[in-house]
């Protein structure tokens, strides 16, 4: 008996000197490795400007564009020439093809201007989501109206008084005017097309990277 007790004490002393055995089934504290992947860090949200500033900038841009576009429409529109005779004024076959020249010029100026400015403004206001489309399109409508008004103010001279004051053989230019309201829609179409193209490209890139636009997380602040 004394020998057996001595063995047991020796075994206990040896077991105490051994390191503690790991206890399986109990997870230890998880230490996250230092993140070296920049893609794991969520991007900081871009600051969103107040509504008042966004609308004001859009209105000012299209207002100035409308003034310049109206001046360009008055300066570069090909006008038909009436030939004055004893019976009044008449248009020749060649001049008949220039009657709708102001319509084509207004359409070209409006579409190109609205496409470029609408695309730039939509990209600048893209954090607003669908609201940026409405702001840009309404701004384009404003630009169209201002352009027509400035052109009519600068270049629309009534035809009949000038025909009555002219002498036979004189050439009298037709008044600057739109024969249909279809060219006025060119501003709206240009801005909407630019917004649609940029939105499609941007959303496709976001779907490919798996990121979400900031505007989708909530509405921008209204001040």
Short description:
Keywords: Membrane, Transmembrane, Transmembrane helix. The protein is built from seven helices and three strands.
Question: How does this structure look, described?
Answer:
It comes from Kribbella albertanoniae. This is DUF2567 domain-containing protein. Keywords: Membrane, Transmembrane, Transmembrane helix. This protein has a domain of 111 residues. The protein is mainly alpha-helical. Strands 2-1-3 form a three-stranded antiparallel β-sheet, covered by helices on one side. The chain starts with a helix and ends in a 14-residue tail after the last helix. The longest helix has 26 residues. Strand 1 and strand 2 form a beta hairpin.
Quickly list its features.
223 residues, mainly alpha, 3-stranded antiparallel β-sheet, 7 helices, disordered C terminus
Indicate the low-confidence ranges by residue numbers. Answer: 1-15, 213-223
Q: Radius of gyration over alpha carbons?
A: 37 Å
Report the sheet-strand fraction: under 5%
**Shape from CA axes?**
elongated
Category by helix and strand content:
mainly alpha
Count the helices. How many? 7
Return the average pLDDT rounded to an integer.
79
What's the SSE pattern?
A: HHEEHHHHEH
- N-to-C terminal Cα separation, in Å? 93 Å
Strand order of the largest sheet: 2-1-3
Q: State the major sheet.
A: 3 strands, antiparallel
Transmembrane segments: 54-73, 106-125, 132-154, 184-203
Keywords: Membrane, Transmembrane, Transmembrane helix
Protein name: DUF2567 domain-containing protein
